[in-house]
């Protein structure tokens, strides 16, 4: 069944505040964009559509090169509101699709991780908890059903409270979101995507 993903994005200059210091401060926006580029490049190999809902569409325009469609968050104000905006746009095109919310900071994501999650979900409302087990990296709706995003502190528990099933697959690249320098080092051990790796090793995400 078709799966369309929504990826919310703050302006890169403002995103990932806890990751500041992992690279030279001048490179911080490029690092945020590299994380998202590797995430989207992997997701676009599996999903039918990847819709980025952006606080600054011009600042993330390069994500279109990796298979993303980009729309303005249009005053959404927070992550869950941005996801609801993306949900409304995608549902207008296909009311019966499975929709997913995917975090933009998964630089070790592999297409096979995401494909395995979709296979396990089998059309059920479900989610993938982050490495620590408290957050959420991927939330999936049932076909044609509401997404009901509850992202924020303790989102894994919050999504369980909305009857979403916690998927059990290992999928290390899908679970390893990057909020801190330690998270980034762990993602590096798992195997970074091309853009994040290039920035860290060569000082460029080209």
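-> sequence recovered:
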């Amino acid at each position: 069944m078709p799966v369309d993903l929504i990826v919310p994005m703050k302006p890169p200059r403002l995103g990932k505040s806890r990751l500041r210091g992992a690279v030279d401060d001048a490179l911080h926006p490029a690092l945020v964009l590299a994380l998202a580029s590797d995430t989207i490049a992997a997701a676009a190999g599996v999903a039918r559509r990847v819709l980025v809902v952006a606080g600054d569409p011009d600042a993330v325009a390069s994500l279109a090169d990796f298979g993303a469609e980009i729309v303005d968050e249009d005053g959404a104000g927070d992550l869950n509101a941005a996801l609801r905006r993306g949900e409304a746009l995608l549902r207008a095109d296909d009311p019966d699709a499975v929709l997913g919310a995917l975090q933009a900071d998964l630089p070790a994501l592999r297409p096979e991780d995401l494909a395995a999650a979709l296979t396990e979900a089998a059309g059920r409302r479900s989610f993938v908890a982050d490495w620590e087990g408290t957050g959420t990296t991927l939330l999936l709706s049932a076909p044609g059903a509401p997404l009901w995003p509850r992202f924020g502190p303790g989102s894994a528990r919050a999504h369980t409270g909305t009857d979403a099933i916690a998927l059990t697959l290992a999928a290390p690249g899908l679970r390893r979101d990057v909020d801190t320098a330690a998270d980034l080092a762990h993602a590096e051990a798992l195997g970074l995507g091309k853009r994040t790796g290039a920035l860290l090793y060569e000082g460029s995400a080209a």
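Strands lie at 3-9, 49-54, 69-72, 98-102, 126-129, 136-140, 165-166.
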